[in-house]
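Beta-1,4-N-acetylgalactosaminyltransferase: structure tokens wanted.
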Amino acid sequence: MTLFTKANGVRAMLCLVGMWVLFSAFLSYIDNKTATYSTFSRLSIRHVHRFAKTVNVSSDSYSNKSSKGNDILTSGNQAAQLFDVGAQIVGSSLSQQNNISKKYNQSKNGIIRTIKNQYSVSLKYGCKEPQYDENEGPISPNTTLESLDIVEAELAPLLKPGGSFQPHDCIPKDHVAIVVPFRDRYAHLAVFLRNIHPFLMKQHIAYRIFLIEQTNGRAFNRAALMNIGFLEALKIYPWDCFIFHDVDLLPLDNRNLYTCPRQPRHMSVSIDTLNFKLPYRSIFGGVSAMTREHFQLVNGFSNSYFGWGGEDDDMSNR
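Answer:
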């Protein structure tokens, strides 16, 4: 009997191809598991350093004609249909946001209540902006890699449900929503939460962190996630300030105030991986601060940018 026949050769080739496909699928599975539930060996944190500066964005002259309604709002101040990025889509009218505060005051389970409901009569003084000299400002982030369970156990006694905080010894002037677009970067998330909460607690602001996660297999759409975070946050409270924050950025100075000035602010102006220099003047990515009114005025971020980059420059132009 001849062993090496043409038929046997074909069978052997098909067998080898099948084994290779199975082996490749196994390696892909292992890589995905490692990327999602890693021991944080791939962690890379960018540090925000020194002071944030105010970037003047000419929002009054901006007209959103090129987006064709493909942003956060359309004409009539209605919420636009966002791209399907695997997160909850908000379709309610933003014109109702003036009623949010009234409805919110009536809720017994609210996260952050109004001044009249939250504070006692004896609490008369507003929170003062923290002051730091040159020696007290710089800080060293804790980049020890821990699981989210450990981080939660550390922070839970200090926070209210949902990741919110407000000072108990004074009336906060600023109510800030921190919107973090996210997908699969659990190592960064653990380090971010472990550092940002203690940092914000010292600033005497009322805040809540909103983690907006993309769960489908499409290319990452950071802009759409931030639009969704803006709309979802307004369902809970009429925040006056929004900080849009990458999960891999950590502040390095206590004098970086997480509040909104009169003009939109680019906060991550000095990053270690860029030698603490701006790559170009109009950059607006990383960490940025905008009031609710400014964000609505420029119609939010464009939803057209999938993958890395573009949406921040688009917002800067607005």
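The longest strand covers residues 175-182. Helices lie at 6-36, 100-105, 115-118, 148-155, 186-201, 222-236, 292-297, 311-317.

Cheers.
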